[in-house]
Design brief:
Layout: E1 6-13, H1 18-31, E2 36-41, H2 48-52, E3 57-61, H3 68-77, H4 79-82, E4 87-91, E5 95-97, H5 102-107, E6 113-122, H6 134-137, H7 141-147, E7 157-167, H8 170-187, H9 198-208, E8 212-215, E9 221-222, E10 237-239, H10 247-252, H11 256-268
Parallel strand pairs: 1-2, 1-4, 2-3, 6-8, 9-10
Antiparallel strand pairs: 4-7, 5-10, 6-7
């Protein structure tokens, strides 16, 4: 009998997110012992041991690009190829687990993909994907996205790519191939579109139609948008950069090692709150 492998994967491109990534690893190890792949770029190798303190961490080079935003997008496009597992959970590196998420791995017995919707799920209202003043662009969102060749419709959904889980199947391989193809359209139309991947991601979902399950926002809870949620269950996955994290979440990753590292970070690492990438 073949044992199915499972593991986590994240992306670390640059020093601004390094402290987040340390606490990401600490949170995963609080609840899980599966291997964790980090697609890494623009981090001096002298800092790699800080990541390798955590057991079973695999560092792989992320697709490089002089544009740090584009490098991060390329890394997300490469998730399928970079994963070594039958079942993979991808999480942004500024995520903190508040409990185990073994149920996500279990769902992958049945589904190809598990996702959460964006706080603004309707693609017709996704002004965040377009250049220009958002209030002026609202009537034109779908026509602009369609005009560049994205196969989106009024009922298409915008998903938050900070969390996704997938299993290695032919369907998910085709999905990531289409994801790359549609992102090329986004990249080639930066006069109209911002360099974001949600439109390409939604297009690949619309095109491939994988067997997928939409999880509630408790699996990708963005504290920045807490007033928009109607939460009925326990928050399992908190999506929030470490400096803004509530104390109960900071306690999840608190240890002698992280306390010492945080003092090091204050002196030697740039403040992730001021990360210009977050403004892109």
């Amino acid at each position: 009998m073949t044992v199915k492998t499972r593991g986590f994967i994240t992306i670390l491109t640059g020093l601004y997110s390094f402290q987040d990534c340390i606490h990401f690893l600490a949170a995963i190890r609080k609840f899980h012992q599966e291997p964790i792949i980090i697609l890494i770029d623009r981090v001096p190798k002298i800092l790699y041991p800080f990541l390798k303190v955590f057991k079973n961490v695999i560092l792989k080079p992320a697709p490089a690009d002089k544009n740090t935003v584009l490098a991060s997008r390329k890394a997300k496009l490469a998730l399928y190829e970079a994963s070594e597992f039958d079942k993979t959970i991808y999480l942004d590196s500024d995520i903190c687990l508040l409990s185990d998420i073994n149920d996500v791995f279990e769902y992958l017995e049945e589904y190809d993909f598990l996702l959460t919707e964006d706080v603004q799920p309707s693609i017709t209202k996704a002004t965040n994907l377009l250049r220009g003043k958002q209030q002026d662009m609202l009537p034109n969102v779908l026509p602009i996205l369609q005009s560049v060749g994205l196969p989106l419709r009024e009922d298409s959904v915008q998903y938050n790519g900070g969390f996704m889980a997938f299993r290695k199947t032919e369907t998910t391989k085709v999905f990531f191939d289409d994801f790359k193809r549609y992102f090329e359209i986004v990249k080639n139309n930066q006069d109209k579109l911002l360099l974001k991947d949600q439109g390409a991601f939604a297009s690949a979902i619309a095109s491939v139609k994988p067997k997928m399950k939409i999880l509630p926002p408790t699996y990708n809870y963005l504290s920045k948008w807490k007033d928009t949620y109607n939460i009925t269950g326990e928050i399992k996955v908190l999506h929030c950069t470490y400096p803004y994290r509530p104390q109960y979440a900071k306690n999840i990753t608190r240890s002698l090692y992280t306390r010492i590292f945080d003092k090091f970070a204050q002196v030697f690492l740039p403040n992730q709150v001021t990360n210009p990438w977050r403004k892109k």
